[in-house]
Amino acid sequence: MNLSRRDFGKVALTALPLTALAKSKMIDSRIHGVEIGAQSYSFRDMSLDAAIDAMKTIGLGECELFQGHVEPRGQNLHEWRMATPLDFFTGIRKKFDQAGIQLLAYNLSFNDGFSDEEIDRGFQMARALGVDLITASSTLTAVKRVAPVAEKYKIRVAMHGHDNTKDPNQFATPESFAAAMALTPLFWVNLDIGHFTAAGYDPVAYIQEHHDRIAVLHIKDRKKDHGANLPLGEGETPIKAVLQLLKSKKYPIPANIEYEYGKPGMDTVAEVRKCFEYCKRALA
Q1: Where are the alpha helices (DSSP H) in 16-134?
Q2: Contacts for 148-152: CB closer than 8 Å, 24+ residues apart
Q3: Nearest to 255 by CA among 96, 34, 27, 107
Q4: With CB atoms 3.0 to 4.6 Å apart as the test, which of 6, 161, 178, 254 could cross-link to 171 if both were Cys?
């Protein structure tokens, strides 16, 4: 199996609801050809409807949907995942279509506690959402069970890394990403350039080497040596160099803002707008 980005795009198009095919006006948040969007985790203090409204207000036209905006709190999630009708997810897709926002991916983090049935159901959810990509903060042991299901549904899974380089079961190092990608061509990388920098690696060099297997970037700023999350431009993550690389090389990799430095009382919409403006200046 050797599937290109174009192949995956064709698969995604056939999965879209009719409302998506019929939509006439989408928000264009490309800056000099680079798609700037948002991980909806950035709006984790809001409901899904409020998060969609915020993205529309800011002018962000692409979204990676955080599972926390979909799954209920205080319930047995195993039971909820298995019992919730797939029409529920189709309805979520319609909300994004009506707002003019492209739904890029569903962020569902398969972990070792997921049953095989839950893993399969996760791909059904993604299909109902009309996406060809799941992003996941997962483990190497969990994704070994995910691989055959990804092949069953022909849906990519992009591994999201953090900076825990001491646990070999976590995604943080280039070697951990390589171990996953060796399992199936449907395993890609969701490179969080802030976490990758904090873990001691160079995101620019990694993107240059592996751009054909990177599905999406997360844009955030951190200090090296496991430093804190900071407003864009105040850390040591080479955000401008990464965005300029996407621009100059025309790599078709969406760059999603993941606002994570916030503290209680901060205005989420204002801070994400600042992040978007920073990206615009970095791509000037």
Answers
A1: 18-22, 48-58, 77-83, 87-99, 116-129
A2: 149/119, 149/120, 149/123, 150/123, 150/184, 150/186, 150/187, 151/1, 151/184, 151/186, 152/120, 152/123
A3: 34
A4: 161
CA-wise closest residue to 64 among 146, 133, 156, 157: 133
Answer for the pair 38, 63: CB distance below 8 angstroms, yes or no. yes
pTM exceeds 0.85:
yes
What is the DSSP code (8-state) at residue 70? T
Domain 5-17+34-282 fold is: TIM Barrel (3.20.20)
Torsion of CA 75, 143, 256, 88, to 10 degrees: -40
- Where exactly are the structural domains of the chain? 5-17+34-282
- What is the rounded distance in angstroms from the CA atom of residue 118 to the CA atom of residue 86? 13
- Rounded CA-CA distance 52/49 in Å is 5
CA distance 232 to 272: 10
Neighbours of 49 (CB within 10 A): 11
pLDDT tens figures, 106-128:
999 999 999 999 999 999 999 99
Determine the number of helices (DSSP H) and then strands (DSSP E) in the chain: 12, 11
